[in-house]
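pasting input
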Amino acid sequence: MKNRRFLLVGSDFEPFCMALYGQGGIHIPKICADGGVRFAHPVEGELPDLSLIRTILPLKKYLFPPKDKVLSYSQDNGYQPVEYNSGKLLIFGVHPCDLAAISYLDKIFLNGEPDAFYLPRRKSLALIGVSCMPDKYCSCGDIASPMPADCDIFLYKIETGYMVSCESDEGSAILSPLSPFLHETDILPPESTRDNFSLNSVEKFPDDLSGVSSELQEMARSCLGCGACSICCPTCYCFDLLELPSLNGERAERFRIWDNCLYQSHAEVAGGYNFRKARTERFDYRYRHKYLGFGQLQGIMSCVGCGRCIANCPAGLDLRPLACKALKESSHAATSP
Amino acid sequence: MCDHTNKNIYLPYLATVEEIIDETPDVRTLRLVFQDEKVRDSFNFRAGQFCEYSAFGAGESTFCIASSPTRKGYIECCFRSVGRVTEALRRLEAGETMGVRGPYGNSFPIEDFFGKNLVFVAGGIALPPLRTLIWNCLDLRDKFGEITIVYGARTEADMVYKRELKEWQERNDVRLVKTVDPGGNGSEWDGKVGFVPTVLEETAPLADNTIAFVCGPPIMIKFTLPVLEKLGFSDGKVYTTLENRMKCGLGKCGRCNVGNVYVCKDGPVFTAEQVKRMPMEF
């Protein structure tokens, strides 16, 4: 069924979902008991709420958990590696921005020597994407992303239900038993937010931020340094390695934990010297990482426009105007004599 | 997605502390021997590279490999006890076990220096990152021209590798100029008194066919680079090695970036030309 498209009429959506749930572990976007929107297990008969705009945390929580044990140590056996063999998990209802973010994380953790903790988790995830309707915080249409919104199956919302696009062998295996609900079509997929991703010609952000330095300073002054933007960002992956010993000192465990470039401790070294002491420097660092990229990923914008950082910022900060202005300034500079 | 071996990059090799040398009251050298014979044979590094050193129950710290790649069978690290991990490493006794993973980062392109004069400029605890290269060059002495070492510390007691300083001083194929900050000299002090940049200017090594290496606290580097420029060294002929906060050593954790450069992967060895392009304040 790979590379074929099918129509799923609205009245078949519920039985389609129930049959899908029967295949094993599945998470859907839902409003949880505390009111938060998360990817989580559906309760008996619960349908995915595909109208929800954004979950609190993006999918990195599955691939790169906030606290991940990487080694254990005992006096008798020294350091022992931790191995992961996660069971299959299907995530149903992933928006294009979150899919694009996974493409970016893949570049970080799988290029070159693949990460031993990310790889098995990544292999165990099957992804069903869905087209969406952006809200005021989304920016997937404003600044285009070069990252592809790849997945196993993608659902385009259409008037009569969904157009189901099967995009991988894994997607094929998932959809085969569901074929009674699917009617093949050769109609092209409708326009959707997915079109904002995987673009070849992406505007390059200027490396020189002098044109926006006053705005950057101004925003940094309002920043509370809470780091919420980085925690909820689908492409933020800075981490720390932390070793926690048992009280008697006989055992220890080493964890990879999420870190945050807005925290004062991020670039602080033993002895107290801090490579990014001022909040403006940390703000500048975050901006550069999101829009300019580092190292091998230099020039690849990692902001996918999900809007989580804006929706969750207690100070109401929004990097988008800054990025747009920087782009505009550089195009001015390029065209002026 | 491609199928690869599932290698845990965080797993350290086990190493035995073979020898402990107290360089100053709070700076210590550990000589380490890998416990696995295969690792001992296969562990190759170049001058300038660094490792992540583990103290059980405390975590990891980043230091350069301070010994020379020409000295086989062991590696040495040198550190000041200032934090959780370094305090724990300091508690280790000879014969005890610790962890090491690496080597990481780039290195000094030593082959490019063959036939040239070398000037090493170091301050305080920043001698170890250059000491690996100094010994590497001294062990291949006939491949280089004149070798000058300018080393300064706050006080005589703060100087590391005192035995080796003496050895370099006595060798006639090395010119050692050592200095302490004003007030840091004891009654027996036989070196100069003054800050490193000033002493370097007085020493005035010829820039012609010469490569300079600078390593020290940011303030020393800041004032030394203009002196080298004044002496006629172009930025491409001046090397330094940077050390930022690092956690993974592999260009992933996002700690050590300066601008778009990963110090751990693209460095730690950079030319002054590269450093001047970085958005960083010395």
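fyi Chain A has ten helices and twelve strands.
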